[in-house]
Amino acid sequence: MLKDYHTAPISEAEKALFNFLDKVNRESNTISGADIAEVKAAGWPDEAIYDAISVCALFNFYNRWIDATGVQDMPALGDQMSGRRLATEGYAPPAEKSAAASEGGS
Q: For residue 14, with 0-12 CB atoms within 10 Å meaning exposed, 13-18 middle and 19 or more buried, which class applies?
């Protein structure tokens, strides 16, 4: 997937979205209604397209901010630990853990 999404074992809809996001990254000033229509034709609703554009834009912002401010990369071990945590817990804790934490429980 990281080497070439065109040949990755993902759906055609996902490939269409990644193709669109590639254009967002490289030539966002040329995005047109036809580009949006192509992603919609692949099955993506407006909300998903909006979310994908937002995530893409935020990652670009964060990367430029980090580069310009001199923030150092996380060491490889930190990346590995973060990857394990995301693989087992996801980005957010399960709802029951969040509710218990907000109520003062463990």
A: middle
